[in-house]
Amino acid sequence: MFEQFKNGLLYTAIGKYSSVVVQLLVNVILSRILSPQEFGIVATVTIFLVFFQLLADIGIGPSIIQNKDLKRSEINSIFGFSLYLSFALAIIFVFLGYPLSWYFDNEVFIPISRVLAICLFFYGVLVVPQALLLREKNFRLVNFTTVGSALIQGIVSILFAFAGFSYYAIILGNTAKALTLFIVFYIKTGTKMNFKLDWAPLKKIYSFSKNQFLFNFINYFSRNLDTFLIGGTISQSALGYYDKAYQVSLYPNQVLTSLITSVIHPIMSDYENEKDKIKQVYLRLSNILATIGLPLSIFLFFSSREFILIFGPNWTESIPTLQILALSVWVQMILSSTGGVFQSGNRTDLLLLSGILSTILNILGIVTGILFGEIEYVALFLVIAFTLNFVQANYLLMVRMFQSSILEFVKVLIKPAVMAFMQFVVFFLLPEWDVHFLIALLIKGSVFASVWLIGLLITGEFKRIKAELKGNKQLVDK
User: Which end of the chain is flanked by fewer CB atoms within 10 Å, N or C?
Assistant: First the structure.
């Protein structure tokens, strides 16, 4: 299992880090060409694209990974169903622009929805080939293709932005990415379409996919309601500022957590009946993520101004929102890993329950913030909701799934909390310099790295990590 994790993490790291760097650079360039309002329009329509992608998946992807008994002919039948479903959803998406234009009082959504329908189709039909590659643990191909598609997306978006295509530049880039992923995954897996629908394979994965889909369905609303309400009740510009801050707060997740969560389910699904082994992996992953995430949250809070100015001076209104959201970075990092753990233990029923509770709390937080009429309040109450979700998700994992105690989980957070406190004291006492924001960011980044390394030594985490790399189990278990 260790070798599988090592290989999976290696290729996933290459893919994730390269993709994030490409996306960040493209985002910086586009942010200096396009306005916050244009980004707000794209953010608005993207939440509907994500929803239809969810409908196109309906839990099929994780089900193929989990079910090792599926034959290739059965997977081809599922692919045929996926293609028909994706085509039907794309047709519906073509006409989605009309109600959107009415709700947001902007007719631009009508032509946008027609373009994005093509993008939706390709995202839908790549679900089965991608799941097949992950099931075979072909992380190398998946991640190298992801990097390549991100480069193509960036090039297309930037070229069209310079050509004056406004928000269409982002949309066309996204479409080019989806097309690239599908072509490569389809060719490499040799997936064939069975034009005659066979319901037997779908019934075989129904139990798992049902709970997975329902979780994704309700989780979608809890994660995107803020974007929908801000764009509809405050303004598209406010949504642009909010979305920029939210996206920056997600970068640690994209760089670190998604690296791990991408390999948890494909690898740990082999240990479905060994719950204790899954628990130990989760506790160690949580400790690692907290060791990075808790200090990082403090650093991002005190460096929000510098990070936002990277995108240009016209985004300064995003700074207070990012400061608030920064406090939830570590929470979101650990929460992101819980889904794969539920899946690995074949407990999508608990995953669904966690999703329902998460949706209720997130909606309450978002609506409360919207009532105040400011994006900063939306961020504040969303952080509170994330924190409460962190508690309920880990209760379901530790107590309900692992038949253990929540205190066993709390213990892995103690040393990371000490390291975060060290960061807070240092940054609180650190003076502000009247220098260029990039120089200030470089100084703060150096301070963060230095204090983090000192924290590793003081808490003994450095010795533990060193022991793990050398395979010294006696030191690792301490």
Answer: C
